[in-house]
Amino acid sequence: MERRPLAAIACCWILGNGLSCLYDGITFWLLWGGISLMAPLLSTVGRFPWRRLLVLWILFSLGAAYWANNDGSNVSAIEARSKYISPENSGMMELEGIPVQVEGRIVSTVDIDGDRAAFTLRLSGYSFTGESNGERASRERKEPWHESKEKVAVQLRLSSQSELATAASWKRGQIFVIGGTLERPGDARNFGGFDYRNYLRNQRIHWLLKTKGASGVISESPNHFSFTAVLGKVDSLRDRLGVTVGKLFPGWQAGYMKGLIIGLADDLEPEKYAQFTNLGLTHILAISGSHVAINVGLLFGLLRLCRITRETAIWIVLGFVPVYVLLTGFSPSVIRSGIMTMLGLYLLRRGLLKDGLNVLSAAALLMLLWDPYYLLNVSFQLSFVVTAGLIVFVPLLSPYFRWLPERLRGAAAITVAAQLVSFPVTIYYFNQFSLLSLVANMVIVPLVSLIALPVGTAALLASGVWLPLGQWIAYPVRLLNSLTFTATAWLTDRSGFMTYWKSPSLLWITIFYGLAYWLLRRGAHKTAAQPYSAFSAASVDDTVPLPPYPGAKLPHVATLTRLKSSWKQLCLSCILIAGFAGLLVTGYQPANAKGVGHVQFIDVGQGDCALITTPTGINILVDGGGTVSFRKPGDAWRNRKEPFEVGAKTVVPLLKKRGIHRLDAVILTHGDQDHIGGLQAVVEQFPVEALLFNGSLAASATMNKLMATANAGNIPVYAAHQGMKLTPDEATTIEFLAPPDEPVFSGVPYVEEQNHRSLVFRLEMEGASFLFTGDMDVSAERKVLALESGKRLLLPSPVDVLKVAHHGSKTSTSAEWLARLQPKLSIISVGASNSYGHPNAGVMERLERAESFIYRTDLQGEIQVKVKSGTLWIRRKLE
């Protein structure tokens, strides 16, 4: 605390924030009491000065109280006034779907993607109008009119292509009057899935305002100065700079350079962005410390060339930094680097710059005092963790790179340190790490940072004087960009280097950093130390005197002492290395523990997807959901830049988060889009050992692409049929009951009606029985029942868990079928508020008559079944 008081203060404040964030009620008070009792223990045993411990304890407690106070006040003012709508039973759910008219100011950039415009509106007032959604908003205030400063997230559906220009003219600071309906943001529907409601709450947003048509919006420019109006002017300037960048760089390079220079990463092609993501290079596109440092360095150099004094140059740069922070998007990473740069320059000007960790701590405290929810921001966490890691770990890593040339030594240490300290945070949020990431960062980052960024910035500035001059300067950057993405594409195509990790616990992350620091510190001390050697001295001159200090040992005695100490140090180092390796092995294990069977029915909306994990860790994916589009050919303008695809956005992230490294089998029950659409992303990103389908192909682009990908990846494809049996392990058996094995004389047939040919199979695992039915219809049910007559028993009776066919459609799940199966549990995979009316009321009635416990993904989200020795444990995401 003496050398780095701000670092100690920041750590205690963040610890208090974190404790209050993670726990509440009796758990919080027990942990707070336990930490409080450690203070006097440290003072007694560790001989820490009690005054310092008291100060740190007070800061820790204040941090916890500050978070609790802010989080407690983070409630919806609209909800608090909902008694006006329903005095008898007020509550947030009562307000959903009620037409409302609001007035407010835009406080975010307007994101236009396809036919949707999205932005954040800070309200000045609202009224429940009674008008229908989409009616033109009226400037006349309806009574009662409530004043409010609450923020809402507006999602506006454009009615026609001509409204794109209208939406593009909207800027921050404008005042809007909009009519629409309020809806609650959706929460996570799968375990470990993205929680949109919590994401918006951390921005103090509690409601979505949904409306249609830009023509129904009344807008006006601000009539007085405001910070958001200034930000609107900055947005316009950024847009103009983006247009200029588009003139300097062709095609996809324009989107890449917009992100690199001014922080506009939305225009980068998804494929290019995925390459950067897979190699851990997305930090290049996030304006951060390196961008600020390079631009500050360029400005400093330019000012010194103009013979401006050092003191004056510092003041000029101090004025430049906040302008640059505003211009590049005001993200947490650039705010952090901006604050650190300004503090560092000021302290440098005063001759007080002593320690970078104190400056970093001051920046963290300022940001967390301004908004404690920064603590939960991924960009904030990565920015501060990596910066602190560079300060602490680079000096420890530098001795290991003495064999490199002096100019490369520091760069190598910085790259390795950044990879090391960012690794736990990266796998916690993104659940993947490429073994080629270190190579990519060592090769590509210096080229981008030292050439593409400064020369691209110079080209942008020069184009303001004369556009051809800027294009001439940009030419070498174009060549470098082509080389960069050629390299990233080649590295991305190398198979076997991508690893998937479950999200580790906070304890695992803490132990990781502790062991890494201890190991590197011990190694750095050994590498830097050059102890006196009696034998080496004697070899030069036989008459070298004994060491001139009292009690000096003879050479052989000193050597024995050092050998004993070396053995102890070696053993301790081996233990630490073994512990670190064991920690990595533990973190790499899948989330589903071995020895227990798991069947997880993932909520993919209107579709099917289930993950089977056997007691020995065999993973089998049954279907993958799929996004069904009803877009007309003439409505191509409505398509988003990167349309939502359930496989890439839901299934793949969940598999990664659960630590699934490979899929031993993928079963396609049939070729409908809502069952196989999501599998394309799965087979592209995961090693798949086998693909099983129903022996027929659907005449669709989705099926053709999926089979082509399997063929290109050398994935074996098998046609499953009635009577086929698989034994993944001793406790698990899969037997297919449909479709029947029919002779095929000329290749794989194309069948339009895929539901009837759905794969139906019985899963026996750990003494429990499951029946998967795909979208089989009543006719297929009758065929299975008929095949059973006079033969061995095919169907389990009673079946423990039945996956109800076709999302509960009336075309399946007949009374005869249920009478034969007698299912104890029935699970319906169905989309919330789907347009098909699933599940059918008649099916629900038949299931209830069969006395089967019913679980539905539209009401309860993901449903997980854990089985051990015939006993089932059920848990659902939504209550």
From TrEMBL:
SUPFAM superfamilies: Metallo-hydrolase/oxidoreductase. The chain crosses the membrane at residues 53-69, 313-335, 356-376, 382-401, 408-430, 436-461, 473-491, 503-520, 570-588. Pfam families: Competence (PF03772), DUF4131 (PF13567), Lactamase_B (PF00753). It is found in: Cell membrane. The keyword Transmembrane applies. GO terms for biological process: establishment of competence for transformation. It comes from the Bacteria. Residues 606-806 form the Metallo-beta-lactamase domain. Keywords: Cell membrane, Membrane, Transmembrane, Transmembrane helix. It catalyses: 3',5'-cyclic UMP + H2O = UMP + H(+); 3',5'-cyclic CMP + H2O = CMP + H(+). It is a multi-pass membrane protein. Counteracts the endogenous Pycsar antiviral defense system. Phosphodiesterase that enables metal-dependent hydrolysis of host cyclic nucleotide Pycsar defense signals such as cCMP and cUMP. This is Competence protein ComEC. It comes from Fontibacillus phaseoli.
